[in-house]
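call fold(seq) -> C-alpha cells
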Amino acid sequence: VSRRLIVNADDFGASTGINRGIIECHRNGIVTSTSLMVAGAAVREAVALSKDNPDLAIGLHWDVVGEDERDFDLTDHASVRLEFQSQLDRFLELMGRPPTHIDSHRHTHLEDDVQDLFRELAAPLGVPVRGDGQVHFLGGFYAQWEWGVTELEHVSVEALQEILRDEVIEGWTEVSCHPGYLT
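ret:
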C-alpha cells in the first residue's frame, strides 16, 4: 500500500478572499480539493472559478453554524435531515454534479448527536465523509486554535513538512487547510 495525499481547502464560497486563496493554492500549490459552502456569500463566484479549474475536486461543506455561531439544534434529527437535503440539492443545482466528498463547517457533523445520522444521509452518495475512516484526516495545519489569535508557525513550511513526514500514513490521508485573503 502506498501513501496518497489529499490537501483540502475548506470554506470555498465563503468570501472572495477565500475563493482567491483556494484557487491560487490549487493552481500554484498543493491544494487538490476544496469544500463548497453553498450558503456562502461568494458561492456563485466559487462555482464560476470551479469551471476554470476542472482538476479541483469539490465536495459539500455542510454549514449550520456559520461564522456568527448561530444556533442549530443537532439533536433535532428532522431538521438535520432537512438541512442536509437542502444543502445537497443546492450543491447539485450549482455544480450540476454530486460532491466528491462531504464534510462540515467546524466539524459539526462529527458531534455525537448527529454523527451516525450524517453518515446515513451521506451513504447513498458513495463518497467519503470526513471522519468516516475511509480517509485519515489531519486538521493540524491551521493557524487559529484560539478565537481571534493567529499563530502562523502552525501554517509554516516547516509545520507542513513535519505533518507530511510524521503524520501521513499508508492509504489515503487528507490534510485540511484554510487558505485565503482578507479581501
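The chain has a mean pLDDT of 91.
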